[in-house]
Every structure is written in structure tokens, then in C-alpha cells.
Amino acid sequence: MATDEAAEVHGYTAEKTSHLKRLRRIEGQIRGLQRMVEEDKYCIDVLTQVSAATKALQSFSLELLEEHLAHCVVEAAQRGGPEAEEKVREASDAIARLVRS
Amino acid sequence: MATDEAAEVHGYTAEKTSHLKRLRRIEGQIRGLQRMVEEDKYCIDVLTQVSAATKALQSFSLELLEEHLAHCVVEAAQRGGPEAEEKVREASDAIARLVRS
Amino acid sequence: MATDEAAEVHGYTAEKTSHLKRLRRIEGQIRGLQRMVEEDKYCIDVLTQVSAATKALQSFSLELLEEHLAHCVVEAAQRGGPEAEEKVREASDAIARLVRS
Amino acid sequence: MATDEAAEVHGYTAEKTSHLKRLRRIEGQIRGLQRMVEEDKYCIDVLTQVSAATKALQSFSLELLEEHLAHCVVEAAQRGGPEAEEKVREASDAIARLVRS
Q1: Which of B58, B66, B92 lies closest to C88 in CB terms?
Q2: For chain C, which end, N or C, has fewer CB atoms within 10 Å of the first or last residue's CB respectively?
Q3: Which domains are assigned to chain B?
Q4: Cα separations (Å) of C81 from A33, A41, B78, C76, C84?
């Protein structure tokens, strides 16, 4: 089945439920920020919440990345050939975007 | 009125509409991420979207911070005394949290 | 005297000795990195040292920035006028560069 | 010979000369910062140089990391077994340190 294959290829599907829970919590943080702005909360308190949401997004991306290395990159390395190289470059580009964001 | 005073104290109220628009767009990005995870999208594409949402949060916090400096910190400096010092320290702590998140 | 004026304008001069000590320590970390590369140390250990040096540079910049806000920005705010606005914008740009680096 | 083996294991040895050149340039930037502090240069200009040095360190670490993935992690994956898992976890921890620094 397509979904099972995807589970193998993408690596993160096993953790899908936990990922969705995390993203829903982050969505809640963003909605909390909207409430704070609507209620004219003090800027520093808003900033503290923005930092918390940013950190939560970052932890999420680090988890995704580790799963990607553990599954997609390792499997491509085992198959060998140019695909392994391509996966490493692609992962490195994603890491650079994370580090710079 | 409390709200008018808050508007003066917090500085960002004038930009309230634009802030709420931004936060709603970020909320949309987070919901987009949930859809991507649900549809087993490729991890690297999910990561690219996470980086985009992180950058959007960061730009939002930089804007809030600039408004805070331009209003709360500048006004406290003009009133002088220990409050000015306290505002500078508070802003510096918020900057440190941003830089480290 | 020019130096005394500079001390007032730049704010960080009082902490000059401590800043120079910090920068010399960071220079030592960078030279330590060169030795590690020369001795073919394990990449992960090199990366750990690079992170330590990056964090040290970041703390240094956060300290500089706090001094800048406490002196240059506060004094410009007290003098008032367009200079205060300019200083806030300049500080905000520096913060944005820090957050994005 | 030990060094030749290390060259294979660490991956970055082929790029040793270019790495050392980069680190020497960063060392020069740090010494330039010391001169700026000694000469009481304007804080914002010092901060701009600190951001440049931080970015240079970051690019260096991203390059090291890519080489590490391309060599150590890929080779461990090809050998298989628990070593591959360990390498992925170790690389992920290094990435987390980078992202958070």
C-alpha cells in the first residue's frame, strides 16, 4: 500500500501521531499570541511567548531531521550510489536552513 | 481608559491589525504543516516549511522588539531614573532569548 | 579629551579590559580549533568546539548590545529628536543581524 | 599508519588545508575585533563585525557537518549495525548544538 511504502521512505510516519500533537500545541501557542496582542499584553510578555513558540518549532525540526537521517539517509547510504550523495547534500541544505533561521 | 493607556505604554497597539494578520498567516503555516504530516509529505519538504514558519516568527519578534525600543524604552529613558535602567535590562533579556532561540 | 568623550559616546569603554580579555579567549578557542584540525581530531569534537566559540561570540555581542542600549540609545532618547529614532533603528538592525547570524 | 586511517575515518582531512585557511581568516577577524575595541570604535560597527565572525564560524561548521555526514555517517550506515544508529544520534546532537548556538 502506498501509505506503508511512504512510512518506510519518510521515516517520520511512525511518529505521525506525536508530530501532529506537537504541531497542534504550537498552533495553540500561535493562537495564544493572537489573544495576547488583542488584549494589548505587554510587549516583553508577547516576545517571551514568541521565543517559546520558536523553540518548540525548532525542537520539532530537530526531531524530524534526526528521523530523516536515521531512515532516509541511512537507507540511501546502504543502497549506495549517487542517491546517497544526493540525500546527504539535501539533508545538509536543510540543516543550513535550520541553522540560519 | 485602560486600553488607551495600554496603547501608549505598549507601543505596538497602533500596529495591532498588522500583527494579528501576521500571526494568522503563521497559524496558517502551522496548519499547513499538520496537513503535510498527515499526507506523509517528504521530510525535507516539511523541514523547509518549518524553517519558513520559524523565520516568520522571528521577523514578527524583531518588529515587536523595534516597536518596544522605539516606544517603551525611549519613553522610560526620557522619564529617566531607575525605570530606564530596568527597561534596558528587560529588553536585553528579551533579545538574549531571541538570539538563543 | 577624545578618549573620555569616546567613553561617553560608546558606552563600552568602561568595560574595555573585560571585552579584550573575552576576545582573547575567543581567539584562543579559534587557535585551538586550528590545532584540532591539524591533528585530525574527530569531526564531532571539532564541531563541539565550534559551537562553544560561536556561543562565546554571541554572549559577547549580547553584552555589547546591552551596553549600547544602556548608554548610546538612552542618551539619544534623552536628547530627543530624530537622533533617538535613528539610534533605535540602528540598534534594531544590529539585533536583526544577530538573530539571523 | 594511524594518521592515514584517521584521514579515512574523519572525512574532513582532504579539506584540511581549506579548513585551516578558513580558521585563520576567522582568527584574523577576532584580532580585528580586538583592535576595534582598543580604538574605541562605535559599538554598532563592532557588532557588525561580531556578526560577520559568527556567520563565518557557522559556515565552517555547516561544511564540517556535511563532510561528516558524507563520510563517517554514510560509511557507518554501510557497515550497518548499532554503530550506524550511534553515528546518527551523535550527528543529530551536534546539529542541535549548532541550531541552538
Answers
A1: B66
A2: N
A3: 13-100 (1.20.58.1000)
A4: 33, 28, 11, 8, 6
In 10 A of CB D55, how many CB atoms? 15
Against a cut of 0.90, is the pTM above it? no
Cα separation of A45 and B96, whole Å? 14
| CA–CA–CA angle A43, A48, A53 (5° rounding) | 120
Q: Using H for helix, E for strand and C for coil, what is the string for chain C?
A: CHHHHHHHHHCHHHHHHHHHHHHHHHHHHHHHHHHHHHCCCCHHHHHHHHHHHHHHHHHHHHHHHHHHHHHHHHHHHHHCCHHHHHHHHHHHHHHHHHHHC
C33-89 tens-digit pLDDT: 999 999 999 999 999 999 999 999 999 999 999 999 999 999 999 999 899 999 999
Q: How far apart are CA A72 and CA C18, in angstroms?
A: 48
The reply to whether C36 touches chain D by the CB within 8 Å rule is no
Search chain B and give the residue with CA nearest A32: B23
ipTM of the complex: 0.86
Chain A neighbors (3+ CB pairs < 8 Å)? B, D
Touching subunits of D (3+ CB pairs, under 8 Å) are A, C
Distance in angstroms between the alpha carbons of the first and the last residue of chain D: 36
Q: Do B73 and C77 touch (CB under 8 A)?
A: yes
Q: Which residues of C touch B98 (CB under 8 A)?
A: 95, 99
Residues on chain C touching D91 (C-beta within 8 angstroms):
44
Cβ neighbours for C6, distance < 8 A, ≥ 6 positions apart: C13, D40
> Looking at this protein, which amino acid is placed at residue D61?
S
Min Cα–Cα distance to chain B from A41, Å = 8
